[in-house]
Structures are given as structure tokens and as C-alpha cells.
Amino acid sequence: TLFQVWMVGSSNFGAATLGLWQMCNKSCTELVVKSDDEASLKTVQAFMILSIIFSVIALIMFIVQLFTLEKGKRFYITGAFMLVCWLCILIGVSIYTARFTGQIPLSTNTHHGYCFILAWICFCFSFIIGILYLVLRKK
């Protein structure tokens, strides 16, 4: 299974981790959220999946444009897909930050996990790469 650590906390049973789909303590169970937060969680899940899809499309378009573009042309399509990926990451991680930070049931001393930090790093890099593709020319 895919193991994700978006939030980490301490509980009486040891370290508890919270992902987008599962909560793990000694064993992993499906993530249960309050009914008020369910739509927010589904939105975060959807935008994070969309960001992966758009980044893969951008990679495929880069390879296609690399071999089909004439010299001096720019990678506009690839850049546009990377900026859409950037926007999806921004929306997903921002909603997660606003709604779910520090919310691990029965846990204290909560902090962000490595997947949350990697998502913000990907946010920065996808923006930089998107802009670079828009100004990059094939030589």
C-alpha cells in the first residue's frame, strides 16, 4: 500500500500518522473525518491526484515537443500543463493546511509529516518549471 504521512502526532499508543486516505497507529485504518470536513478532504484528494495527472501529461508533452518542435520554438504546451499542475497543488495543499493541520484524534504534539512538506516543495518546483518551459527555446 501507499504510505503517506501528512500529519504526525503522539498518543498513548505510540506515534500516530495521518495521510489523505488512512490513519495509522499500530495498524492502519481508513481515515474517518467529521461530516463538515469530508468535502474538504475529498477536494484535497482530487486536486492532489489531478496534480499527478497533469505532471505526467506535461512530461509526455515535453518528450513529444522535444522531437516535433522546430528549432527556436517554445515549450508552451508543456509549460501550461505544469502551471495547471502547480495550481492543483496550490489548491489541494492550501485546503489541507487550512482544514486539517493538527487534527489527529487523541494525539498531542502534532506536526507536519514528510508528504506535506514534499507537497509544498513540489508546489515551488512545478511553478519554476512551468515558467522555465514558457521561456525555454529549443536550440
TrEMBL record:
Keyword Glycoprotein assigned: yes
Major location category of this protein: membrane
Annotated TM spans: 46-68, 75-96, 116-136
Keyword entries, A-Z: Glycoprotein, Membrane, Transmembrane, Transmembrane helix
InterPro entries: PMP-22/EMP/MP20-like, PMP22/EMP/MP20/Claudin, PMP22_EMP_MP20
Subcellular location: Membrane
Tree of life domain: Eukaryota
UniProt key word Transmembrane helix: yes
Family named by the database record: Belongs to the PMP-22/EMP/MP20 family.
Name recorded for this polypeptide: Epithelial membrane protein 1
Gene source species: Oreotrochilus melanogaster
